[in-house]
Amino acid sequence: MEVERNPAGPSPIAEPGGLSHYRFGLRIAEQGSVLSIGDGIAWIKGLPSAAMDEILHFEDGSRGLVFQLADDRAGAILLQQTGALTAGVAVYLSGQRLAIATGEALLGRVIDPLGNVLDGGPPPECRHRRDLEVPSPPIVARDFVATPLYTGNKMIDTLIPVGKGQRQLIIGDNAVGKSALAIDTVINQKGKDVRCIYVIIGQKRSSVVNTIETLRRAGAMEHTTVVVAEATAMPGLKYLAPFAGCAVAETWMGQGNDTLVIYDDLTTHARAYRELALLLRRPPGREAYPGDIFYLHSRLLERSTHLAPAHGGGSMTALPIIETEQGEIASYIPTNLISITDGQIHLDQRLFASGFLPAINVTRSVSRIGGKAQHPRIKQEAGRMKLDYLQFLELEVFTRFGSRLEASMEAKIRRGRALREIFKQDRLSPLPIEFQLAWMVAFNEGMFDNIGIETIPACLERIKAGVENSELGIGDSREQWLKSVTDWLQREGQP
């Protein structure tokens, strides 16, 4: 406690902001000190009024965030650390919560979870600031997921559709194409008025640079903000990264815009949170994760939704990425995320090794609400396609034994193999939804039934070229599409 005095008494000089405004009074302030520091966390004594998630200012210029409260001390995660930070440094309360600058100026920029620019450009001029931790929208502020979000992937847009406002998990082992699928989705939003936020957590710098350069070459950075907490960042920044990306998207969603957030990946995020929790002596639970690990991800993903028109009508679609080990989706963190999200896209290591790319395992993939947002024309053509494809995968097992099959079974197997060849797609080549409708019309009319597997890519290229040069839209009649697809395939000879 300090008492402010003016020994000379109030000055008669009336100067703006001068001594004439000086008054006797008490100024009460808390000053703590650092007990210990290390591994990105600090223990502090002497701050009895500290609140959870409050920003702390250290005398040396460092900053921290209150993360643990004990009887005689407070634990803080470090946000910024100088070389002069050591035990005994004074610490002060700020009375503020962590917020990030948001707005149009962030489009095309690369920032860290605190809003600092990492791309070498000038700081963005943002008029809005938003807390990283806010409650998710209430039920009355939400609307049904009713508009499709196209990924540009043939298998997803037809069999595992995603709607705007949905939370669709991308799950699979390491290095099976999860990030590539997410990047393709971001690239496909070009020209569709969807703002994208790509959150990169715990990846090495070369991978981060490669992702940014890939987006830039594809022209996707114009509608994308990249939030980066690389592998060398402090664990506190890795923990805050997805919340920072979510805050940026929420501002645009509240203004009525459609947004897409990629969390790459939440496995690394969970490990960073576990590291912080153990360092701050929180009781460990299953696999040493703290007891609130489920709440950590649920409160993040519940903020993704489609707002009702009365609340702006914007949407935030979340594509969290999670990593499995040896294809085990029943482990702790994957099961948590599966139960929180509205479906999952499972990428299989065996399919990847066999050359089927993208290695999406249809038997383990599902979209629980995306079908309600699917365009009626696409839904009509997709119809029983997924069920027929699953039946083909079961029937194909019998062909390995060399047994003779009925003619109807052989026809189903030929048809299934053609469909599997159609589903193959190179990375960085998202396709328009009109092309998806065109090839499904051709497939359902049996145009791929009696041709060789090796000729299917050439046929698809003809359809793609025809779609690019055509003015047909997804809402046009099936008869128009059938006539056009037939002409495109016969233009250079019947396939």
How much of the sequence lies in strands comes to 15-25%
Biggest sheet descriptor: 8 strands, mixed
**CATH-assigned homologous superfamily of the largest domain:** P-loop containing nucleotide triphosphate hydrolases
The end-to-end distance, rounded to whole angstroms, is 88 Å
Radius of gyration: 28 Å
Give the strand tally.
18
Chain oligomer state: single chain
Structural overview:
- With 495 residues, the protein is of the alpha/beta class.
- The chain has 3 domains: 25-96, Elongation Factor Tu (Ef-tu), domain 3 (Beta Barrel), CATH 2.40.30.20; 100-374, P-loop containing nucleotide triphosphate hydrolases (Rossmann fold), CATH 3.40.50.300; 380-490, ATP synthase alpha/beta chain, C-terminal domain (Lysin, Up-down Bundle).
- It is 34% helix and 20% strand.
- The protein has 15 helices and 18 strands.
- It has helices spanning 154-159, 178-188, 205-217, 235-254, 266-279, 293-301, 332-340, 349-354, 370-373, 376-382, 385-399, 407-423, 433-444, 456-468, 478-490, and strands spanning 2-4, 25-27, 31-38, 41-45, 54-58, 63-69, 74-80, 90-97, 99-102, 110-111, 128-131, 169-172, 194-201, 224-229, 258-264, 315-323, 343-347, 366-367.
- It has an 8-stranded mixed β-sheet with strand order 10-14-13-15-16-12-17-18, sandwiched between helices. The protein has a 6-stranded antiparallel β-barrel with strand order 3-4-7-6-5-8. Strands 1-2 form a two-stranded antiparallel ribbon.
- A hairpin with a 2-residue loop joins strand 3 (31-38) and strand 4.
- Helix 4 (235-254) crosses helix 5 and helix 13 (433-444) crosses helix 14 (456-468).
- It is elongated, with a radius of gyration of 28 Å.
- The model is unreliable at 1-16 (pLDDT under 50).
